[in-house]
Amino acid sequence: MVTLRVVVPMIGVVAGLALTSHAQTSLPFEVSNPQHLKWSTEEAERIYVSACELVARSIRPEKPPRLVPKFTLVLGAKDDSTMRNGETSEVHLRAWNAGRFAEAMVLVAMREIFKSEDVNNLTRDTLIAAHASVSVSELKRKE
User: 92 with 81: CB under 8 angstroms?
Assistant: First the structure.
């Protein structure tokens, strides 16, 4: 016969596992953590939300866009880096580091606003503008 003393703790364990599982799957980004490194999902989610809101307000303060960038967080990577290949973004961290993740989140959120085509156009326009202007010192050298 099972007593309440056994059933109540078991319900708590099952509920705790369900909440933990739900918390990890409800993140707005994918996670690859093959080495099972320790990190805070709650802190990561807070940083994600803060970066998205702050970047959106800095770009368009009067009517900020709703940013929901998709990417994969890779823990246990060789280097700390942020990569983008087409529409796929990855944040690589050797170990959990809130500062590095926040920096990566700002970049990922900005890339949500500026798509690859926008970056290419801005790069081209930057080079055109730079080559279309000449400094006074350059003019003096040509005389």
Answer: yes
The full 3-state SS of 83-126, as one line of letters, equals EEECCEEEEEECCCCHHHHHHHHHHHHHHHHCCHHHHHHHHHHH
The whole domain housing 91 covers: 23-114
pLDDT single digits (tens) 77-96: 999 999 988 778 999 999 99
Is 61 part of a structural domain of the chain? yes
What type of residue sits at position 86? G
How many domains does the structure of the chain reveal?
1
For the segment 45-54, what is each residue's pLDDT rounded down to a tens digit? 999 999 999 9
Contacting residues for 116 by C-beta, under 8 A, at least 6 apart = 84, 86, 87
Contacts (Cβ under 8 Å, ≥6 apart) of 74: 32, 33, 90, 91, 92, 93
- Looking up residue 84, the CATH number of its domain turns out to be 3.30.2010
Alpha-carbon distances of 58 from 10, 23, 84, 98, 113, rounded to whole Å: 49, 29, 22, 21, 11
**How many residues does this entry show for the chain?**
143
The predicted model scores a pTM of 0.70
